[in-house]
Amino acid sequence: MIGEAQERTKIIFLVEDNRGDIRLIQEALKRSTIQHEVVTVRNGMDAMSFLHREGEYSEAPRPDLILLDLNLPRKDGREVLAEIKADPDLKRIPVVVLTTSKNDDDISQSYNLHVNCYITKSRNLSQLFEIVKGIEEFWLKIATLPTQ
Prior knowledge:
Largest sheet: 5 strands, parallel
Structural class: alpha/beta
């Protein structure tokens, strides 16, 4: 009981430009048993502003997990990943690339940039829900994450 009361809300930072995918991922996460909040931005520039707490994001919470699409407007997901993993204050935040790309170059480049996990989105609704549930289970329940 005491442990439950002290458990803080996990922040899932979703960087995704497709409104349909945003809705589906949010819907899948609604079924979660983990206390969480999903914060979403739709382009790479806003993602970096959020993570650096700049401008309108000056009060942004630090994410516990980043779900990152690769094909983003204004700043590509690959650039966002490279900037996160090059930043000493951000590099320990787990980043899961969640994208439609099955391209071997995208997969290799993402791992070369130190992504924590690369997952290809399914267009099948039930499979997508299972993928999101698996991400949540592993990264927010099983894995031990750094506190800051």
